[in-house]
Every structure is written in C-alpha cells, then in structure tokens.
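Please produce the structure of this protein holding heme C.
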Amino acid sequence: MRFPVLPVVVFCAAGLFSSTVMANGETIYNSGCVACHGAGIAGAPRVGDKAAWANRIAQGTKIIYEHALKGFQGTAGIMPAKGGFTHLSDEQVKAATDFMIKASK
Ligand code: HEC
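Below is the modeled complex.
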C-alpha cells in the first residue's frame, strides 16, 4: 500500500515547496488555488468558466496580479493574499494566475 501513495506525496511537495525549478503555473494552481477555483468554492471564479472571468480579464493583468498577490474583496467573496499560500513567491502566484487566465478565455 505504501508504494502507490509515495509518488503522489513527492509530486505535491515538489509543487508546493520548490521555488524556482518548478515554477509551472499549472502545477502551482493544482497544488493550492484549485481548492477554491476548481469548483467555485466561496465565490471564487471557477477556472474554465469564461463568463466568470471575462470581466476580470478585461481589467488587465496588472490589476489581476495585484488582486492575486495582495488579495481583495469583491462582490463574489474574499480572495486571500496569494490565496493564503504565503510561501509562494510573487512569480509563482503570477504563473498560476497566467494559467488560470489562459484556461478561462
Ligand atoms: C480560500 C479560497 C481561495 C483560494 C485558495 C484562492 N482564491 Fe483566488 N479568489 C477567491 C475568491 C472568492 C475570488 C473572487 C473575489 C471576488 O471577486 O469577489 C478570487 C479571485 C481570484 C482572481 C481574480 C482577481 C480579479 O481581479 O478578479 C485571481 C486571479 C485569483 N483569485 C488567483 C488565485 C491564485 C493564483 C490562487 C492560488 C495561489 C488563488 N486565487 C487561491 C478565493 C480563493
């Protein structure tokens, strides 16, 4: 039973804790942001839901990045700074945001 579990644990740890080597937006998204943005929990815009993202994308990446990094309260709910994953670097949060935008256009 131990063997099938191990690679999953290693994969998650790599996604969460390695800062530069795996600065892959999709990996970072799947290691954290997906908790809210995967199913639209707590008012979070669901990734892939074009209607929910159209107005957000229209404000421009500068504001979207700022909201993702510093957090913000909108009409839908509260986005915590960096989604609450404060160990992520700004670059990692931006990479995850880029992935979310790309997947929701
Ligand atoms: C605890 C739940 C939660 C987590 C975890 C979370 N978010 Fe969010 N996020 C939200 C909510 C809620 C909103 C919508 C707020 C509103 O518009 O009222 C949001 C909105 C956003 C937006 C849109 C910003 C805008 O200007 O409209 C981006 C980008 C975003 N999140 C990125 C991320 C990233 C990147 C992560 C992971 C590092 C993440 N979120 C993790 C809840 C979460």
